[in-house]
């Protein structure tokens, strides 16, 4: 695993997460032993996942499940299918899930996992076989009261359906609560798919209001037009903002007068259609990050903004849709320039919040209508926003430090109350 003393800006996810923790802990009255413990995941499981390809050949992929901390409840977090998935990346991402659940005051801890694979190279049947085998390999570590996976980059509700079915077959009973983000026909929650994008939009809207801007005058660029980016862009568009650029892995489309985001097909609807869209201008992903706009929403990959390009970022505000899109060093530069950064652990927390609603619906065998999900998500996001905003106002902290203070205070209190180290 990467060393936290690494001072370069080729920052690993775990190193970034640890540096953020160390910095924020200085603002919280928390036992230093607890902070030391929180720099490490409880455990990281690594498994080999054999896959019989459609052409009859066999390939073996590596899968992971990192479980960071469960003092407040079962481990919770997504499964990512991406070539760069590693033990180190899952560990850092699982730390962020611990803080995210605590900021939202959900009764969960943090987990994250995935398989080092490019899902675009697999057929649907291959993705199904891979997912079922992965579920079997990590079965002992997960469960509705232990560790509850969900979708992340490269996975979706269908992946969760296969995962739930494979787990249930081994258990001998249908166990919907083992994963969230399932299709509603098998116990998934309405509104889970668009929830992380919805929360990004809610936090952007509140921040725009906080700084006394007019949303109708606000220009926004969104990097990544997948589950998070497309839903955030479309909602902000609906609320009157001017979405001038969006991108997929191949590049960006740009219209200074504003794009019709409903006309652009997202990754889920038809992969590759963003860069194929007939827009007035096309840009590279690097150029999108440098646009002279009000709000930038990086909603694709980690480390999109580093010391290499941060000086070229001209947005007045950044709302993090992806997990960890800004390295620790670049974040410091943005702070010096007084660019507000609304952090991932607050902004995209709508996903895990609706996952929590789904988990409750599964336990109770009830289905909430979509408007109830939207209303409850709005209420939970505003509660978390107000808690974080209070720290910003009272203690003049950055938005990220303020969100960490809220999270770490709750985690520290839970650790102390349970008395884990007699
Ligand atoms: N899904 C969820 O529930 C949640 C996800 N997140 C985080 O949000 C981020 C995005 O996840 P999600 O929306 O689910 O992922 P998706 O797979 O649905 O979409 C990812 C999008 O990013 C684009 N993309 C991929 N690589 C790059 C790149 N190098 N540069 C620019 N664009 C790129 C993809 O393009 P293409 O279509 O061409 O592949 C696609 O448009 C991740 O960091 C994830 O951890 C956070 C909270 C919840
Ligand atoms: O819904 C969940 O449980 C987790 C979603 C996730 O992985 C994330 O918020 O990064």
Automatic annotation (TrEMBL):
Keywords noted in UniProt: Oxidoreductase
Residue span, Glutamate/phenylalanine/leucine/valine/L-tryptophan dehydrogenase C-terminal domain: 189-419
Domain of life: Archaea
Annotated catalytic residues: 112
Signal peptide: none
Annotated site, Important for catalysis, chain positions: 152
Any GO MF annotation of the entry: glutamate dehydrogenase (NAD+) activity
Listed GO biological process terms: L-glutamate catabolic process
Quaternary data: Homohexamer.
Family under the similarity heading: Belongs to the Glu/Leu/Phe/Val dehydrogenases family.
Protein name as annotated: Glutamate dehydrogenase
Organism: Haloprofundus marisrubri
């Amino acid at each position: 695993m990467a060393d936290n003393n690494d001072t370069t800006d080729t920052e690993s996810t775990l190193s970034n997460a640890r540096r953020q923790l160390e910095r924020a802990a200085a603002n919280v009255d928390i036992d230093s032993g607890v902070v030391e413990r929180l720099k490490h995941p409880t455990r990281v499981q690594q498994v080999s996942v054999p896959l019989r390809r459609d052409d009859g050949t066999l390939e073996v992929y590596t899968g992971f499940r990192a479980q960071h901390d469960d003092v407040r409840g079962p481990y919770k977090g997504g499964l990512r299918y991406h070539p760069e998935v590693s033990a180190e990346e899952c560990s850092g991402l699982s730390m962020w899930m611990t803080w995210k659940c605590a900021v939202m005051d959900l009764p969960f801890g943090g987990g994250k996992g995935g398989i080092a694979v490019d899902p675009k190279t697999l057929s649907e049947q291959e993705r199904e076989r891979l997912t079922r085998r992965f579920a079997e390999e990590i079965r002992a570590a997960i469960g509705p009261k232990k560790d509850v996976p969900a979708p992340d980059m490269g996975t979706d509700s269908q992946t969760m359906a296969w995962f739930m079915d494979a787990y249930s077959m081994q258990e001998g009973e249908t166990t919907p609560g083992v994963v969230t983000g399932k299709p509603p026909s098998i116990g998934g929650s309405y509104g889970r798919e668009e929830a992380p994008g919805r929360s990004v939009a809610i936090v952007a809207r509140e921040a725009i209001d906080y700084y006394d801007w007019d949303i109708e005058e606000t220009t926004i660029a969104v990097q990544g037009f997948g589950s998070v980016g497309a839903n955030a862009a479309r909602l902000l568009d609906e609320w009157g903002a001017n979405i001038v650029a969006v991108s997929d892995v191949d590049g960006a489309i740009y219209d200074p007068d504003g794009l019709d985001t409903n006309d652009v097909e997202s990754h889920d609807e038809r992969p590759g259609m963003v860069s194929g869209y007939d827009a007035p201008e096309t840009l590279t992903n690097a150029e999108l990050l440098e646009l002279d706009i009000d709000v930038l929403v990086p909603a694709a990959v980690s480390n999109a903004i580093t010391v290499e390009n941060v000086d070229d970022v001209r947005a007045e505000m950044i709302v993090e849709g992806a997990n960890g899109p800004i390295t620790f060093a670049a974040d410091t530069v943005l702070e010096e320039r007084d660019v507000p950064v609304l952090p991932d652990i607050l902004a995209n927390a709508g996903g895990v919040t609706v996952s929590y609603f789904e988990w409750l619906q599964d336990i109770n065998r009830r289905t909430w209508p979509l408007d109830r999900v939207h209303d409850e998500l709005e209420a939970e996001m505003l509660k978390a926003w107000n808690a974080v905003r209070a720290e910003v106002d009272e203690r003049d902290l950055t938005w990220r430090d303020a969100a960490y203070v809220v999270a770490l205070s709750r985690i520290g209190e839970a650790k102390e109350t349970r008395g884990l180290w007699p």
